[in-house]
């Protein structure tokens, strides 16, 4: 969902910010499209067109989106509950008020 007053402007590629900041813009938009929005194809094409209008090179956009999606898809299947091992027994404790 984009608010009605969305202008389509992001950090311009030709600005004097570092390449890392420009990459983070693409990563943030990719995360939003992948995790929050349902019709992924429409949202990714909207993101790519918007970034092209802001001066981003097509190779830089595709390279960053590809690596971010690869990272997101590989981490979707990780079960975090298996990483956290419960204690074999609970330690009883009580609090004493001052």
UniProtKB/TrEMBL annotation:
<dbReference type="Pfam" id="PF26215">
    <property type="entry name" value="HTH_animal"/>
</dbReference>
<feature type="domain" description="Helix-turn-helix">
    <location>
        <begin position="9"/>
        <end position="65"/>
    </location>
</feature>
<dbReference type="InterPro" id="IPR058912">
    <property type="entry name" value="HTH_animal"/>
</dbReference>
<protein>
    <recommendedName>
        <fullName>Helix-turn-helix domain-containing protein</fullName>
    </recommendedName>
</protein>
């Amino acid at each position: 969902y984009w608010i009605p007053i969305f202008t389509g402007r992001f950090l311009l590629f030709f600005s004097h910010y570092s390449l890392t900041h420009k990459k983070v813009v693409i990563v943030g938009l990719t995360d939003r499209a992948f995790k929050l929005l349902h019709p992924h194809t429409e949202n990714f094409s909207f993101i790519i067109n918007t970034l092209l209008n802001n001066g981003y090179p097509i190779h830089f956009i595709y390279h960053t989106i590809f690596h971010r999606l690869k990272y997101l898809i590989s981490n979707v299947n990780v079960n975090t509950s298996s990483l956290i091992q419960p204690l074999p027994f609970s330690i009883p404790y009580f609090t004493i008020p001052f």
